[in-house]
Every structure is written in C-alpha cells, then in structure tokens.
Amino acid sequence: METRLGHCLFIIFSEWIWLLTTTSILGGTKAEVRCIPSCQLPLIAAFPRELSALDLSNFGDAPAEEFVGYTEGSPTDEKHNVAELTASEESSHKVQPRSGENDTNCLQKDAVNGHQKLSHPEVFAQSASDPSASNKTENGTGDGNSFYAKNGDVVVNEDGNVASWRRTRGARSAETWSGFRPEGGEDALVSDQEEFQLTSSTFAVTEDTAHNQAMVHWSGQNSSVILMLTKYYDFNSGRVTESSLWRSTDYGTTYEKLNEKVGMKTILSYLYVSPNNKRKIMLLTDPEVESSLLISLDEGASYQKHSLAFDILSLLFHPEQEDWILAYSHDQKLYVSVEFGRRWQLVHDSVVPNRFYWSRLGLDKEQGMIHLEISVSDGRSQYITCKLQNCSDGNKGKPFPGFIIPNSLVVQDEYVFIQVPVGGQSVHYVSYKRNAFYPMRLPKYTLPKDLQIISTDDNQVVAAIQDWHQNDSYNLYMSESRGLFFTLMLEDVVSSGGPEGNIMIDLYEVAGIKGVFLSNKVVENQVKTYITYNKGRDWRLLQAPTTDLQGNKVYCEQPYCSLHLHLHVSENPYTSGNIVSKDSAPGIIIASGVVGPELTNTNVSVFITSDAGNTWREVFQEEYSVFFLNQGGSLVAIRHTPLPIRHIWLSFDEGRNWDKYSFTSSPLYVDGVLGEPGEDTLIMTIFGHFSHRSEWQLVKIDFRSIFQQQCTSEDYLTWQLHNEGEVCIMGMKRIFQKLKANVRCVKARDQYISQMSDSCPCTEADFECDYGFERQTDGSCTPAFWFVPSATSRDCITGDSFLNTTGYRRALSNNCTEGSLVKYSPRRQKCPSQAPRGLQLFTSEGTLVATLGKNVTFLVFLEEGLGSMTSITVDFGDGTAISYVNISSIDDGVKHIYSKVGIYQVSATASNNLGLDRVMLYLHISCQLEQVQLSAPSVVVKNKAVNLTTALRPSNVGTVTYFWWFDNKTEPFVTLDGAISFTFSKEGSHTVTVQASVGNTVHQDQMRVAVYDYFRSHVLAFSSNLDELNPGVSEWREDIGRVVKSCMVQVTGISEDQLLVTVLPGLPTTAEIFIVPEKRARDRGTDEKWAHLDQLSQVLLSALNQDLIQFTLKPGVQVNVYATRLSPAPLVDSSDSGHSGTAVIMLVSVVLMGLAVFVIYKFKRKIPGMNTYTAEQPDKEQEVIPTVTSIAVPNPEGDKLTSLEHVDVQLDSKSRGYLPSHTDIKLSDEAPHVF
C-alpha cells in the first residue's frame, strides 16, 4: 500500500514538474520586437534592493537581448502576441496616423514627465522622445495620455505625465533571472518581503477577444474620461478588418462600448484630441474602406460623421485656436479646417512632407498664416507664407526671394532656418524674429557635411554639426541670440541612426534645472558620459557610486573610471538604456548605465541621483520601468519580465528603499502602463492579459489610498544645487524644496516649483568664448589663428554703433551681476569710418544661369563697413545700373529683367569716402531651348571627313554647349559650335548623337550614317502638291522616304538593300537617293564595282525620267518623283576628291553640250548627269551601256519633260511600270563619262 501510494505521489510530482516546465517555456516565448513611433520612450532597467543579496554569478553569460515593454514573456497566441504601444497622436499638435510614415520632426520630451528636450526635425538629442510633440515652438504640448498595443511591442507615451518604457537587457537580464523561479513566478524569491495591497479594479474587454491592437487615451488633466480603440489586424490581408470604441467615465473602472454611436460597420483607424480643448475628439476611419472622420464635442460621448475627399497622412493643430487644423494628404497636398474637421479647404499642393508650420502671434504679421516649403521644378524648393484661407499667388509671401535646398525649411521659435545652394555648396541661412536672412557664421574651417538644429530654447540656437572629417560623431555649437555666430560647445558627441532614418545625438537636457546637460563623447575610441552645469561651457565626468548595490566599496578613480549612462537610441533603437527626470522633481535623475572606463551595453544597472548628478547610487540590477507619482514625490517601478506579475514597487525616499505592492489577485502579462495626465499622477492603468487565450485586461490602480493627507510646509526640506561644492551656477545660487523621506502626503499642485535663488557676482567662469576666439588651457579666450579681430561688426551695417567684443560673451541664461561683468562684457562703441570689405554678390537661385524675360534677383551682402555711409551700386552688364544709399535698402535683393540672350558681367560696388570694394559675376541669360535637329548625309565615304551640323529652335537661345557621341563611345566631343567635322574609318552603320545644353535644359537628336568605300547618289524632287502637306517633322520624312524606296524597288527590281532614300528637311521637299554596293561586291574588281553601280544608276534614272516613280499620299493626291540635276548643300568634305563643286558643274555643262551634238549626229543617245562620290579615282573605267531605249530628263526650269530620240530599242508605251532587270544589262568597253 505504501509502495503504491509512493508511486502515485511520484507520478503526481513528475506531472507537476512537467506542467511547470511547459508553463515556463510558454511564458518565456519571445514576441516580435519592433518600433512603430518615430520617437522612442525611456525605460529604467533594474531589480529591487531586497533581491540584491542573491548569487548572480551565473548571469554573466546571458545573452544581451533587447525588447520593448513587457511583452517578451507574453503568450504566443496571435491575438496577444501582437502588442504595440505608442503615443496617441491626439495628445500632440502634430499627429501621424500612419505608423510607417511617422514624422521625425518632433520635439524631444522626457518620456516620463513630458519635459521638453533638445530637438530638431530628424534629430533626437537623447534616447527618449515623443512623436506627438513635434513643432514645439509653434504648437505647444498636450496633456493627453495614450498607448497603442500591437505585435508584441510596447512603447507607451503620455503627454504631461507619461508612463512609458523600453527594455534593454544586459547580461543580468530579467529573462535569465526567471530561470531561478521554480515556484510561483516572481513571488518565489520574495516571499519574505512584506506585501501591501493597492486599491485596484480590473475590466476585461470580453467582446473583442480576437482584437490584437489597442489604443488607450486618457482625455486630460482632472478628467475621468478614458477612451480605448481596439482593432483586429489581419496579417494575411495586411489591413484592419474590425474595430471597437470603448469609453470610461470613472477613471477606468468600467467601460462602455460605443460601436452603435459611431456605426456598427465603421472601421476606425486613429483617434485624436484637440490639444487646446480635451473635450473635442476626432476619429479617422480606415481609408481602405471609407475616407471619413467622426467628431465629438463632448469628450467622446456622441459623434458626427463627415466625409473626406482625401486621405489624411498627418495633422498639425494650431497652438492656440482649438478648431484650426492642417491636414497633409498622401498626394502632397495641404488642407486647412477652421471648424475642427467639419469642412476642409485646399491650401497648396506640392508641399514638402513635414515642412509646414503655423505662425506665431507676436512674430508673424498675422495669426492665421502658414509657413510652407513647396517643391518646384528641377528638384528645387521655395519657402513661402500663405494666409489661412487664401493662398493665391497674390497673397503668397516669399520671405526668402530665391530657391532653397529641398527639405531644409525649419521654423522654430524666433528662428527660421533654410539652406541655399551657392556655387555648388550648401550655405545655411537664418532669420531672427522674421527679419532678413543672413548666412550662419561657423568657425572658419568648420566644413559641415551635415547640420542639424537641436534646440532654440532660451533665445539661443544649439546646432549639431558633422564636420568634414567626422563619420559617427557630431560637434555641438551654440549661438548668440540672433543665431548668427556660433562657438564650439562640445566635440565628438556620439551619434547614431534613429528608427525612421533620423539622426540621434547623445545629448540630454535635465528637467527642472536650467543649464544642466548630459552627453556621451568619444575620447580615444571610448564613449564616456560628461555633465555640464553651465550649458556647455565646462564639462566633467560623472562620479561613480561609492558602493555597489550589495554595499561593497567601489574603487573607481577618474579619469580612468567613472559612471557612464545610456542617453541615446542607437541604430537598433532597443539596445540602449534610458534616462528620466522631471520638472516637478528637480535634482532627481534616474538612468541605466555602467561603472568603468567606458560605456557598454553589458552589466547595465540603474542609478539614481538626488542632487542633480553630483553623487549617484545603484538602485536596481534588473530591468524596471520607473515612473514619478505625486508630482515627483514618490517613485513606482514595474519589473520587466517574461512571466506574469502581481506586484509593483514603490519608493518614498528617492529610491533608497522599495516597498512591494500587489495590484491584482491574478498574475498579469503586462503590455503597457498609462498614467494620469498632468503632474499629479495618482491613478495608473496597467494594460495586459492573464493568459494567451484571454481578452485584454485594463487594471486601474488608485494610489490615493496610500497617501494620508495633504502636504504641509513641515513635510518639506530644502537642498542647494551645486557643482562639486560650487554653489554659484549660471550666475545664481538656487535652493529647492523636496519632500522629506518616507513622508506620504499629497503635494499641492504648485508646491513642487518652490525654489529660492540669489544672484552671484560675475566671474570668468560665467563667460564663454566669443565667435572667433578659442579657450586656452589656462581658461582664457584668445583669437583663433584664422580670425582677425575687426573694429566693427555686422551691427555697423544697419546702425551707427556696435558692441566691440573682448573675446568673451556671457551665456544668455546666466544671471550673474556686477563682479567681473564690465571686464568681460563687450563695450558699445560708435562705428568708425571704415572702407567696406567682404562684399558678396550672387543670384537668389544660387546659379549663374537665368531665363530671358524673367526677373533675376541679386543678393548683396557686406561683411564689414559702416552701412549708413556706404552706398551700393549694382551694374547689370546690359547698360543699366542702379544705386542705393546704404546696404539696408536691399535686404530683399535687387531685381532685374534681361531683354536679350547673352553673357553679362554683373558687378556690385560698395563705396564710401575711405574706399570701395567690388565683386562681379558672369551671368548667362538664355531662352528656353525647344528642339535641336541634327543634319548629316545618310551615306558617306569611308576615310573622308563629313560635316555634321545642328539647327536649334529657337535659333538664338544664348550660350549653347554641344556634346557629340559617335557609336557607343562613352566620352563625348564637346564643342561650343553647332557643327563638327568627323571621319568614319570603318564601313557599316554608325550612330551619331548630339546634345545641346542651354542652362538647365538639354535636348538631344540622333541619326544613323552608313559608311561605304564608294556609292552613287541622285537628288530627287517631288511634285509641288507634296509641299502643301509637309508638316516638317522627322517622322513624316522617314515615312515618305520609306514609301519612295518601296516604289523604286517595285519598279526597277533593284534590291532594297542597295537603295537608301533620305528626305531632306525644308521646302521645297527634296530627297537624296543613294545606290550602295551589294554585300557580295567585295569580291569584284574596282572597275567592275563602278560599272555595276553605273548600270543600276542608269536603270533608276530611266524610271525617274519616264515618270514611273509615283505614290498616293492620300485619296486624290498623287505625288510624282523626279530626278534633278541640282545638288543639296555640300555635306561631304571633297577637298581630296579631285573635283571641286564648280569644276563638276562646268564639266557637266560641257559634257551635256557635247552629248547633245554627239547624240543628234551620230549615236542619238543621251547620258544623264550624276553626282559621283568615291574614295578612289580609277585610272580607267568601263562605260555603262544601258539596254533601255528612252530616258526622260526633267527640265530644270519646270516640270515639263523633254523627250529625246529613241536610240536602240523602242520601249512600248503600254509597258510603263516595267523595266528590264539589271541582270540583263550588258556592259561595253567604252570609257564612261563620270560626273
């Protein structure tokens, strides 16, 4: 009995072990990892302090894998193995409804607190960013929260108080850790930890079990409304086939399904919310089914449906007007609505993607103005401004008069940036406060391969520039207030490619404290993390923690060892760590990183600082997402694990201790977290599922129950910001308030901003080096070798005084007073009289070619000189000139129209009583070339030069460059003349191609030339009725030539391979017939070859003279073909032929007279004249005796034919259309007359 019982227990135990193993394998199945939004969000990787005592020696070999969110351990069923969370587009001003086409023009925000970070179109200054926060300056920020689940990916955004994460697994990964959990998942190892219960509720989306995508949106701050859009994405068809809309009015405790209100058959794709009025909701339908939108004005309670005539690709909400929206379509058209989408109006077409911006009140002339970059011909763009509902040509503004490089317009805060092509190079221009554009002045030998605008905060521009010698790094530069003059901020900052092809810069601005930045820099092939407290003037390494998580002392001495943090998204956006800070918790920074000589992706831990980066503590060694609660007064951490979890961790002492809280009774596979909008964040929603076959679960966690009371002044303590003991930072002493450790009270909404400050006396440390100066090892600023300090500046161009630099300039956000302020500050001086210097002149298009009859805009810039006393004269080179009393009069350029084509010398002269400066350029004025036509003989003699000519339409178009190709040669002959002489050295068919280039226009013509050793040719004329129907196109001439050749072959019996007919251009219509040797003629002697061609020529002329060659052009129009003695224009160089043109004519005349007498009195026959082309002149030729009896010769003075007497054999008049075959023709020994 005992044996049987033991056997049963063994079987049960074995089955239990097998079941647990199977569950672990299923739970550890990895989901697909990919990133949908263009801007990624932060995660914090860690494990709790109470787990730190465990042996981690076996974790060193774990693979370094990365995934997004919590879904790596999610079950593998299709509906839940597809989870993807992204920022809801409605919480932004610029929204991207197509995940694959997200706009990379986004402002970087701290993914946990919505803090604004350095940003620029296609540039991300740190690892976490918000795709919805694009166009910060123009559009502000929103308060909505959302996440979007699909395909096992988790990326969660919140605009305001954001819950988000992205996982980076090092050697000590959560997945490896899970191998030590034989019982109870996460609870097995922490059973001794005291567990607290949170107030929570769970809602199951039971009716949409099959749906595999979800978007959840929290309407706004102080709102209890949450909207959720679930969809079923069919991977086979590649489209969404089902959708459901859910709404909660009690912070997520319960949800109501709204499909009946939006239409049971309606398939929804995206959800947006007005950033200025959270009660206004917009839903887009799936364009694959229908193109329409649904609008709600009551926070999603009811909807009105409106049809769309276009598909929306992206939206841009106005920063102030809640109903004003710009919509960009798939066909590059921009639409506007001033009624929150109920009606739309076309603004402009050919708009460059993501290059449209709302105007800003106070900077732009009108509130309802739009800044646009539009595409024009030849791959160029133009910067224009349009009124809201009237973008006609008369209402368009052109802030910059010329063309710009495509995709270069950036409108951000007070600045407008463009790139202009000048002399084959890209020149960066900036406009400050919508004034005139000026070139950005970088250090002289900074030759940028790429320039990206990172930030325009604090009335200052931060730019990342990849210099000519850099590949994977950028240099950071900072400007003065106008964005004109830039000085070096930090060299060799790490960069990488982002998920959407954008550039990621390892630069992070710490929230809550102005002037504090973190950056990763390459130093001797090692990546190290540096921190600055004075906005880039001074940088230093981070001090490593004194002890590790186990309390062991850390031996780490700078500069050989320090703390390094992950700040960026690399080419693979899931491999880097993340960093989090918050405006409401100044001084607290949480980031993943390593301690050692350089930054690595292995053995990554989570570190926290409470004093803005002076000292750091290691808090986790496993991957966690950390969020701020209660306006930064508390922290909550959620573990990344492939297994379901029941607990989260809270800290009330800035991460020094963590308490374990249960949020659900059943373990949940977590897909994402959504926090309450705003700074309060006392309610969170965790999104996931219980098993691979269960429906979506929305778990609402209410943290309000763990906070006993409202905070009072006794619950706070103060701390002073310092940099390694130095308390004067950016010219101020700053003291902040924060909650005491372990105080559980609810912070009032305005208490987190409490701080005290006091200004400091200015010292040298408050000044950075001015433009053209460089900092030496002793800290002083001296002129760079290329810089010659000038007594004047650009201010003297437009005014009478200027600030004369001392080599130093105070940072714009520095608030120091007195002290050394006067010593280092520039001194205002009266502009001295000085001869002008550095005059520049170029066209607005950046080219040296312009079109006849169109305005040419010349831009004139003067680098130095007293503008009020310096006059400018522009000489256009065509006899006209214009003068201006000062340089400021021509900020918009000088316009001129040329009336004739040609090359003009344009000059600009700046002069005053002390001297002058002059600059010039040569401008090519041309008109549009419409056609080039190549003329050449169809048949030429081998080794004889032939003249090839061209005709242009119109004939006078300016300077033309001709490119000639012969056969398949890759290198052309280049000429400025439309004619060329060429010698063909081989027999056969050759291709001649010519291109005529005028300005940006190139036209081409091509023809084939046959080359032979010898041939005969005759000029043909046509009856006059053909001229009336000659359209003058090459295709028509080719068809006429083909018809004439066919008639000749049919009448004479000559092989078509030996006849070539070319109809010549022009009127009257003429042609040339070529008789070429047959292929087998190579075996014959020279005399025999010539005799044979003469024989064929006689046969052909006989047919022509007897009016046998004719064809029908169209019903009722019969065209006759005649032989003529007239020759076309000489196409062959006959200098070596032995016969000049005059000699041939005289010889023909003499021979004809002799022939007439000879025929009348003796032989009564005639030999017609013919043109002869030959490469060699035989010493003796055989006479050709035709067997035809009568030859009609056309009268050169008219169309009337003259009959000659019959000689040998009478040709029956009834047999017209037939001639004896040339094979029956007999040859005589008499020498022929050759013409």
What does the model show?
Belongs to the VPS10-related sortilin family. SORCS subfamily. This is VPS10 domain-containing receptor SorCS1-like. Keywords: Glycoprotein, Membrane, Repeat, Signal, Transmembrane, Transmembrane helix. It comes from Stegastes partitus (bicolor damselfish). InterPro entries: Ig-like_fold, PKD_dom, PKD_dom_sf, Sortilin_C, Sortilin_N, VPS10, VPS10-sortilin, WD40/YVTN_repeat-like_dom_sf. The protein is mainly beta and 1235 residues long. 9% of the residues lie in helices and 37% in strands. The chain has nine helices and 88 strands. A seven-stranded mixed β-sheet has the order 5-6-35-34-33-32-31, with no helix packed on it. Strand 27 (410-412) and strand 28 form a beta hairpin. The longest helix has 26 residues, at 2-27. The radius of gyration is 43 Å and the shape is globular. 45% of the residues are buried. Mean pLDDT is 75; it is low at 1-6, 16-191, 569-577, 1126-1144 and 1162-1235.
Give a summary of the structure in a few sentences:
It contains 9 helices and 88 strands. The protein is mainly beta. The strands form 24 sheets. It has a 7-stranded mixed sheet with strand order 5-6-35-34-33-32-31, with no helix packed on it. A 6-stranded antiparallel sheet has the order 8-7-12-13-14-15.
